[in-house]
Structures are given as structure tokens and as C-alpha cells.
Design goal:
The structure holds two protein chains of two kinds.
Chain A: H1 5-11, H2 16-27, H3 33-37, H4 39-48, E1 56-60, H5 63-73, E2 79-83, E3 93-95, E4 97-99, E5 102-104, E6 110-111, H6 113-125, E7 137-141, H7 147-152, E8 159-165, E9 168-176, E10 192-196, E11 203-208, E12 211-212, H8 231-245, E13 249-257, E14 261-268, H9 274-279, H10 284-291, H11 300-310, H12 316-319
Antiparallel strand pairs in A: 1-7, 2-3, 2-7, 4-5, 5-6, 8-9, 8-13, 9-10, 10-11, 11-12, 13-14
Helix pairs in contact in A: 5-6, 8-11
Chain B: H1 2-29, E1 38-53, E2 57-63, E3 70-78, E4 83-88, E5 93-99, E6 103-116, H2 142-155, H3 160-172, H4 178-184, H5 189-199, E7 204-211, E8 216-219, E9 222-229, E10 232-236, E11 249-253, E12 260-263, E13 265-280, H6 281-288, H7 304-313, H8 316-330, H9 339-350, H10 352-373, H11 380-405, H12 409-413, H13 418-435, H14 437-458, H15 461-469, H16 473-485, H17 492-497
Helix pairs in contact in B: 1-16, 2-3, 2-4, 3-5, 8-9, 8-14, 8-16, 9-10, 9-14, 10-11, 10-13, 11-13, 13-14
The chains are: A alpha+beta, B alpha+beta.
Chain lengths: 320, 506
């Protein structure tokens, strides 16, 4: 039922307490948090650093702007509403398409304009924001996943989470929504976590509900066959997020859009630990390897090269 | 690493100060470490009776002054019409009653309370100038008898103390010789001993002790012998012949003068009644040392109302410690970090089971109502405000219902922090929508578990006793909380979460 602390330490598993004290508190300057906690600021910084993100269509800042919302989204068929200060994917509403007056979610559920307005007003009141502070709602273009990803995921858009420590990508996973997770990419809700080899972007390990799996339970896709396209580009994009925020310990969520290629979806100053379960490996040895470096290359490409060289693993397909 | 050393020395310092201060407070102020500790107290009443001659009256009663083995807790006199004052003489303390005119039989009372303490019976009464023995005059044939008795005792003894013992042995010897019998026919053992000792050049005097026995009335003082030897006054019990104060005896009168002097009256007598009471050690400690330096930093100085408020407040750190422990070391999820502490505080008023029922009832009903509210499309602030009103409605309804049925459960719900409950309902319903009922259940159960643990700790008598009477205990709690803040090991729940990972080896 339980394992022992010794076994976890041997595996190099990073625990929540050590993550908070030893990495987040030590490497993340509190001053910089608003850059990632406020998606609007993240977007501004991304534009400055020429990091591609989903196109921002409009922002809703006050109650009366909700009334104008309908006007403005008239010519958008699909869009995503996000709270600027939402944490952990909370409060994100995806509208895939519209049918007459109705808004249709990826799951097929329909919403009226009143439902959408209520969601907007909740966001403004701070329901989803950290600490309940008043918030701003962002309306973004919908991401059109590339065909490769579309086949993999049951609903929703698969995204790639990469942990970047001192600018060097140290671990990556692909998150696939399932029927059980209700189209969400949250691992503890039943989404699939696929650990990725940093050198090639190939699947090294996959889990659902913390247990190892080989095939997607809904689409029956062979997970071991996964190879992320444009992998080097993704890694470089992730490494660039370090410059964008200045945070030492960072989680970047990336997606691949059919038209625009790799995009940075959002950043997280307190990335979770589930990535270790997905990879079947602990973060600690890699973090310590990076900590032991005296000089970190300033060029993102060099940092990616370091990660690809040192943090590679045997892909799952080749083990079996 | 140096940072670490600094941190741990601060922790060590906090704990040391906490322990040392508590210990000092306990030993100096007699505040017990455990609640409910009882201490015996002797309530002694001296009753002075005499017949007044119709003139001015001055009655003077010797009262204990630094009685060895006892501490005076309180004293007072009850005597209508008389003026009363305490006089401190150089070796005695006397209570004096006075009245301009009195006739007929008079009764005066002196009441005092004594606490037994551990103390050496001979230490007090240091005298720099050794007293001189009194002149003793005998008549014949006592003079000869005394001289013979003394001579035989002197022969068999080497020091003043051994002389006392030898004399006592001879006086007390069964079927003693005629010298002793002759002398004892005139006076008591103690008086005889005092006279003999003075004659031998050893300063001695009579002292009076009070045998303490529970619920006795009409007791009189028993004579003791006070001998000056080896540089200090020492008590001998003439009845047993033993040196030192007999057990359970309060040294009532010592030094010069008589026990009772009455001017303007006759047939005077003093009688004692006593009763053994037990009082909580805590109260005793509080009442005894109000001016002690340490007790200025205690909370007893405050008005009762503030005290009872602080009593509750001072329990909060315990709750905070439980939350820190459960979240950091165990890794239990709660809805709202310190909400469980507030629930635990409410449990203190309601007691556990009714509290749990009431809380889950209110939150459950609130969640149902919140389901309807979400259809109304309200702004967040108004929605929570509505919830607060609804929660208060629910509470009132349950209170009335409970009252009708005959349960007082409803009553106790009013202790719950309404606004916190409203927020909890709101947050839980959001979690329900976004992460499903399982998450609501796990967070709700986690909160209640932590609240129950915090409650268990906070309602423990020992804890409320320690936190209030030894405020420095909070330094130790603080140190423990600081320690949890530096814990970087795995949480208990992580041992479960990552259980699969330690299995596969690749």
C-alpha cells in the first residue's frame, strides 16, 4: 500500500515539501510571480520575447463589457475563455463551435449566452483566481491540434508540460484527455500522462491513475509509438520561457497548432509533481545535475543541447 | 549550512526558554503542571474567651510568625466592637484587640489559613547575640531534687543537646525516681525541662505548638521546649523526647511573652478548632504570589472577561500546529488552509459529535441550496452574501426544530463561523463542478479529520491548562511550527501517491 521514504529517495523522487523549500522558494523570486500568475502579463512578455502564444481576441475587464461580449464574438466560431489569474486550468471554458444561439463545448454540451455571461462574471469576481482577487477574462483563439495529436486524445487538446530548471528543460510529459477526465488534462482526474524522452520526444512511460498503461483506453492508440513532431523546436520554446520570466523553476505548457506550430499556452511557477509519475522517474537527479553546473549557457539552444545530451532515456517502444 | 545552524540554534533557544520559564514558573509560583492538582490547606480558628471587668480591654494573642513547615495564606479576625491590629515584635507576632469598655463574657476570633510546605524545621530564628539563660529559683526540697537530677544527667552527657536528651530520658523514664516525681508534681514536663536547662546554663524557653487534626474543636496548644544550642533555637517535643517539631504540628508561639494576655478581663482562655480543606493548587498559586516578578507576566492580572477570551485564543496555536503537521508531514488536503481550526474552535463549544452532525448538515443543505443559486446567475459577492443569509436561516430553522424536538443540537450550531461556512459551501460547490464529487468528499473529510484532531488536542484539559497558565509553552509550539516549515522530506500521502514508482526498476 505504502512505499518507504528510502525507496523514494533511491528513485530520486522530488517531494512536495522539498520542491517548495528547496526549489520554488530558492529559485523563484516572489517578485516575478505575477508574470506567470497573470496570463495577460505572460502574454505581453511572450510578445516581447517573440514567443508564440494563442492569439488573444479580446479581454473582458468589467461587468458592462460582458454585454458587448456577444457583439465581439459574433464572427468567432470557436474560442477559449480563461481567467487571467486562474490556477491549474481552473475556470477555462472552451467553446468549440456555435449553433444558432447556442455555444457548444467539446463534450457536446450546449450553453446559452446567459451561461457564458455568468461564467465571465464569475471570472471577473475572482472565483477562479488565486486568493479570490478580482480578475480579467481573456478570450483566445481556439487551438487546432495537428492531426497527430487529434488521433491521440479523446477530447480536448493534448498539451506538453516541460519543467525548466535554471533555463534547462529537465523533464517533459504529454497529457492526454480521456473520457474519464471529462476532456480535461488533469492527471488526478484520469487524464493520461506520457513521459517523454528529452532527446527525441518519444514516449518512455505512460500512466493513468498512477498505473502504467500502454494504450489509450478510449482511442486505443498505441502510446509507445508517440513521437512529438518538431521536438527540438518545442524544447527551445520551453527553454526560452526562462528568459521570458526569469523564474528558476518553471513549468511550461506547450501545444502544437495546426497552422502556427508550437505555441506556449501558459506558464506555472509551481509546477506539480505528477510529471514524475508519468515519466516513471524522479526529478531529483536531474535537478541536482543542473544545480552542479557552475555556468549555465545563455543561449537557449545550447541549454536544450545539454538537456538532450544528459537527460535522454530509452523509449518505451525499444524496451519491449 | 551556516544558515541552517542559525535556524536550529533559534529553535533550540526557543525550546530552552520555553521549558526553563515554565519550570521556573511552576517551582517559584507553585503553579502545578497538571490540571486538577489539589493541595491541603488548614483552616484554623483561635477563639479567645474571657470575662470583661467593665473597663478598657486589651487582649493580645500570639500568632504564628514564620511557622516552620507552613506558609500563612490568609488571616483575619472576627470580633464585633473591637479594634484589631497585628503587631510585629522582634521575635513574635501578636494580634491585639482593643475596646474602650466591655462587660460580661467576651469572645474574639482569629482565623487563619496555612499551607503545608517542605521546609526544614530549624532554620529560622537566627540570633546574632546568644541569649543568656534565665535565673532559676527553687524552694526546698525541689532545689535539691533538681540539683541531683541535673548532676546525674550532666554526668552522662557531653553537649548541650545530649544534656537535653538525657534530661528528657530521665524525666520520662517509667517509674522514675522520687526526685523526678517530686518535681513533676508541681509543674509539667516542659516547664521542668526549661527550668532545669536554664539552671544548667543552657538558654531554654517554652514554645507552643498546635497539633493539627482534621475537624477538631476545643483544642488547646501543646507545650514544646525550645532550646538554644549550637548557635540556634531548636525544638524538642517533651512528650516523645524527640528533637524537632512533631509531625502535623504548627508552631503557634515561639519566643518571649505568653500566648494570651488580657488586660481588663479575667478567666481568659484560648481554644482552637481546625479543619483540613483541599483547594486547587492552581488557585493557591495564583493567590499567593500576586506581587512576584514572574506573575506580573502571567494572565491572572487581567479581568476575568479578558482572561476567558485569551484562554480560547491561546488554544489557537495548537490548532495551527495540528494543521501544519497534518498538511506538511501527512499531506492531508483541506478546504481552506486554516478553516479546520475555526471548525475545531466551534466544536469546543458544541462538543464533537453534535458539532460534526451540525456541520455536515449545514454544509450539505447549503450545497443543495447553492445548486439552485447557480441557476440565478448572480455575481460572486452577492452569491456568497446570499449564502451567508441562507446559512443563518438554516441555523435558525435547525435551532427551532431542535428545540421543538427536544435536542439542543440546534442551539450549538450558532457557534459556527457563518461566513467561513458560506465560503466553504461556495468553494466546495465550485470544486464539485470542476473536479467532481470525489474531490469534494476527500477535501471535506480531510478538513473534518484535521478539525477533529485539533479539537481533540484543544479540549484536552492538560493542553488548555498549559497554554493558559504557562504562556511560554507557546514558544515551544512556535519552535515546532518553525521546524515543520523546514521539513523537506516526503509527506505520508506521497508514500502512497508514488507507491507504483518504487516498484518498477529500469
Amino acid at each position: 500500500m505504502f512505499t518507504t521514504p528510502q525507496a523514494l529517495r533511491r528513485k530520486g523522487i522530488l517531494g512536495m515539501n522539498l520542491r517548495n523549500v528547496g526549489y520554488i522558494a530558492r529559485y523563484n523570486d516572489r517578485r516575478l510571480y505575477p508574470l506567470v500568475d497573470d496570463k495577460l502579463q505572460t502574454k505581453m512578455m511572450a510578445r516581447l520575447h517573440k514567443v508564440p502564444t494563442p492569439e488573444l481576441r479580446l479581454t473582458v475587464r468589467s461587468q458592462h463589457q460582458i454585454k458587448q461580449f456577444e457583439e465581439k464574438v459574433k464572427n468567432l466560431s470557436g474560442f477559449a475563455i480563461k481567467p487571467a489569474k486562474g490556477a491549474g486550468g481552473k475556470g477555462i471554458l472552451i467553446i468549440e463551435r456555435r449553433k444558432d444561439d447556442l455555444f457548444i463545448k467539446p463534450s457536446g454540451a450546449t450553453l446559452t449566452l446567459a451561461d457564458v455571461s455568468r461564467h465571465l462574471s464569475n471570472i471577473l469576481a475572482g472565483l477562479h483566481s488565486l486568493g479570490g482577487t478580482p480578475d480579467v477574462a481573456l478570450v483566445e483563439d481556439l487551438i487546432k491540434p495537428v492531426a497527430f495529436f487529434k488521433e491521440l486524445s479523446y477530447e480536448g487538446v493534448p498539451d506538453i508540460r516541460i519543467i525548466i530548471f535554471r533555463g534547462i528543460p529537465v523533464m517533459a510529459m504529454l497529457r492526454l484527455a480521456t473520457h474519464a477526465s471529462d476532456g480535461k488534462a488533469n492527471l488526478h482526474q484520469g487524464a493520461i500522462g506520457v513521459g517523454l524522452d528529452l532527446a527525441t520526444g518519444r514516449c518512455v512511460h505512460a500512466v493513468q491513475y498512477g498505473r502504467r498503461i500502454t494504450h489509450h483506453p478510449d482511442t486505443n492508440a498505441d502510446l509507445s509509438a508517440i513521437v512529438i513532431p518538431d521536438w527540438v523546436m518545442m524544447m527551445t520554446l520551453a527553454a526560452e520561457c526562462h528568459e521570458l520570466t526569469g523564474l528558476g523553476y518553471l513549468g511550461a505548457d506547450l501545444v502544437v497548432d495546426e497552422n502556427r506550430g508550437p505555441l506556449m499556452l501558459e506558464l506555472n511557477a509551481r509546477p506539480g509533481l505528477a510529471i514524475q509519475v508519468a515519466n516513471g522517474a524522479g526529478l531529483l537527479p536531474r535537478l541536482q545535475r543542473v544545480e552542479s553546473l557552475e555556468l549555465i549557457p545563455r543561449n537557449p539552444a545550447e541549454r536544450v543541447a545539454f538537456a538532450m545530451q544528459h537527460f535522454c532515456r530509452t523509449p518505451m517502444a525499444e524496451i519491449s | 549550512m551556516r544558515e541552517r545552524a542559525g535556524f536550529y540554534s533559534i529553535i533550540a533557544l526557543l525550546i530552552t526558554i520555553g521549558v526553563a520559564l515554565s519550570w521556573t514558573r511552576s517551582s517559584e509560583l507553585d503553579i502545578p503542571f497538571f490540571p486538577g492538582t489539589q493541595l491541603p490547606v488548614w483552616l484554623i480558628e483561635a477563639r479567645v474567651d474571657f470575662v470583661a471587668d467593665g473597663e478598657a480591654v486589651l487582649a493580645s494573642l500570639s500568632v504564628p510568625d514564620d511557622a516552620p513547615g507552613f506558609r500563612l495564606l490568609a488571616e483575619q479576625s472576627a470580633s464585633p466592637g473591637y479594634g484589631f491590629s497585628m503587631l510585629d515584635g522582634h521575635d513574635t507576632r501578636r494580634g491585639e484587640w482593643s475596646v474602650r469598655q466591655a462587660t460580661g463574657s467576651q469572645t474574639l476570633y482569629y482565623k487563619s489559613q496555612f499551607v503545608p510546605v517542605d521546609q526544614d524545621a530549624t532554620d529560622r530564628q537566627h540570633q546574632r547575640i546568644p541569649p543568656t539563660p534565665q535565673q532559676v529559683l527553687w524552694q526546698e526540697p525541689e532545689s535539691t531534687a533538681a540539683a541531683e537530677l541535673l548532676a546525674s544527667a550532666t554526668r552522662r552527657s557531653s553537649t548541650d543537646l545530649s544534656l537535653v536528651r538525657e534530661l528528657l530520658k530521665q524525666i520520662k523514664a517509667p517509674g522514675s525516681d522520687q526526685n523526678t516525681n517530686l518535681l513533676l508534681s508541681d509543674m509539667g514536663t516542659s516547664q521542668l525541662l526549661v527550668r532545669l536547662l536554664n539552671q544548667a546554663g543552657v538558654p531554654a524557653r517554652e514554645a507552643m505548638g498546635l497539633r493539627l487534626e482534621d475537624a477538631r474543636r476545643n483544642q488547646s496548644l501543646t507545650p514544646l521546649v525550645d532550646v538554644y544550642a549550637e548557635g540556634q533555637w531548636q525544638i524538642f517535643d517533651p512528650d516523645t523526647g524527640r528533637q524537632g517539631l512533631p509531625d502535623n504540628t504548627l508552631l503557634w508561639h515561639r519566643g518571649s511573652g505568653s500566648v494570651l494576655d488580657v488586660m481588663g478581663g479575667r478567666n481568659s482562655d484560648v481554644r482552637f478548632s481546625m479543619i483540613r480543606q483541599t483547594v486547587p493548587a492552581l488557585e493557591l498559586g495564583q493567590s499567593q504570589f500576586q506581587d512576584h516578578g514572574l506573575s506580573r507576566f502571567s494572565l491572572y492580572q487581567l479581568p476575568i472577561e479578558e482572561q476567558s477570551m485569551l484562554k480560547l485564543l491561546l488554544l489557537l496555536p495548537l490548532g495551527a500546529l495540528v494543521v501544519a503537521f497534518m498538511r506538511i508531514l501527512v499531506g492531508i488536503k483541506t478546504s481552506g488552509t486554516f478553516m479546520p481550526v475555526l471548525i475545531a474552535l466551534a466544536f469546543l463549544q458544541t462538543s464533537l459529535v453534535p458539532g460534526l452532525i451540525a456541520f455536515t448538515g449545514i454544509v450539505g443543505l447549503g450545497l443543495m441550496l447553492r445548486g439552485y443559486l447557480s441557476r440565478l446567475n448572480l455575481l460572486l459577492v452577492s452569491r456568497i452574501a446570499t449564502l451567508i443569509v441562507l446559512v443563518i436561516f438554516l441555523t435558525s430553522i435547525l435551532t427551532v426544530l431542535g428545540h421543538e424536538i427536544g435536542f439542543s443540537v440546534g442551539m450549538t450550531i450558532t457557534f459556527f463561523p457563518m461566513i467561513i461556512i458560506a465560503w466553504t459551501i461556495e468553494r466546495m460547490s465550485i470544486i464539485w463542478e470542476e473536479e467532481g464529487p470525489y474531490e469534494v468528499l476527500s477535501q471535506g473529510a480531510g478538513s473534518l479529520l484535521v478539525a477533529t484532531l485539533a479539537y481533540a488536542l484543544m479540549q484536552w484539559d492538560l493542553m488548555s491548562h498549559l497554554t493558559f497558565n504557562f504562556p511560554e509553552v507557546h514558544l515551544i509550539i512556535l519552535a515546532l511550527i518553525l521546524l515543520t516549515g523546514q521539513y523537506t522530506g516526503y509527506k505520508l500521502t506521497e508514500l502512497y501517491r508514488f507507491r507504483e514508482m518504487s516498484k518498477d526498476d529500469d
